[in-house]
């Protein structure tokens, strides 16, 4: 391959990855064409991209991006996967495919630029997604307000009603005496 062609390929790959720091490295070489196409079509509908890539080209791109830690998973045939909601969703989806089709092998990942092995990808897939974490955080932030509202509307609310009734009764009595 000439240097000009290699430079064009590297530039194209850099544009496709466009600063991404979360992706998976897979081995799909044992898949038959039908299963491969089926998987790619379903993943594309979910916004996940698969790209078969030469390890040497990927190593150059990763080195330029400061992601040198991924040299371990880059042995043998490699397919890069990125996209989806977040790295948890991507890991969950690819772990499900690996369970469904035994020929799919998860070799590793990059999570915010840090290298992760295949066991780490499985652990990530079991965690909460970004949206779930935001929901949990919102629940924690709103919790004190909900407790206060519950206290005001609960037994304390009845107490304030009784205090108000007593105050009105006292006002009426003091008004009659005058």
Automatic annotation (TrEMBL):
Similarity field: Belongs to the universal ribosomal protein uL10 family.
Role played: Forms part of the ribosomal stalk, playing a central role in the interaction of the ribosome with GTP-bound translation factors.
Keyword terms of this UniProt record: Ribonucleoprotein, Ribosomal protein
Name assigned to this protein: Large ribosomal subunit protein uL10
InterPro entries: Ribosomal_uL10, Ribosomal_uL10-like_sf, Ribosomal_uL10_bac_type
One Gene Ontology term, aspect cellular component: ribonucleoprotein complex
Gene: rplJ
Database matches in Pfam families: Ribosomal_L10
Record's keyword annotation contains Ribonucleoprotein: yes
Annotated Gene3D superfamilies: 3.30.70.1730
């Amino acid at each position: 391959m000439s240097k000009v062609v290699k430079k064009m390929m590297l530039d194209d790959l850099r544009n496709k990855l466009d600063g991404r720091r979360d992706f998976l490295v897979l081995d799909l070489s044992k898949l038959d064409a039908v299963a491969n196409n089926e998987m790619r079509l379903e993943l594309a509908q979910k916004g996940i991209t698969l790209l078969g890539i030469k390890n040497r080209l990927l190593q150059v791109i990763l080195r330029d991006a400061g992601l040198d830690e991924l040299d371990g998973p880059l042995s043998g045939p490699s397919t890069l996967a990125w996209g989806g909601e977040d790295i948890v969703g991507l890991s969950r989806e690819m772990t499900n495919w690996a369970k469904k089709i035994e020929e799919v092998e998860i070799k590793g990942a990059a999570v915010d630029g840090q290298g992760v092995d295949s066991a780490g990808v499985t652990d990530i897939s079991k965690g909460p997604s970004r949206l779930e974490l935001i929901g949990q955080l919102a629940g924690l932030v709103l919790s004190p307000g909900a407790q206060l509202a519950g206290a005001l509307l609960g037994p304390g609310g009845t107490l304030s009603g009784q205090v108000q009734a007593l105050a009105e009764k006292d006002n009426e009595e003091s008004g009659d005496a005058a």
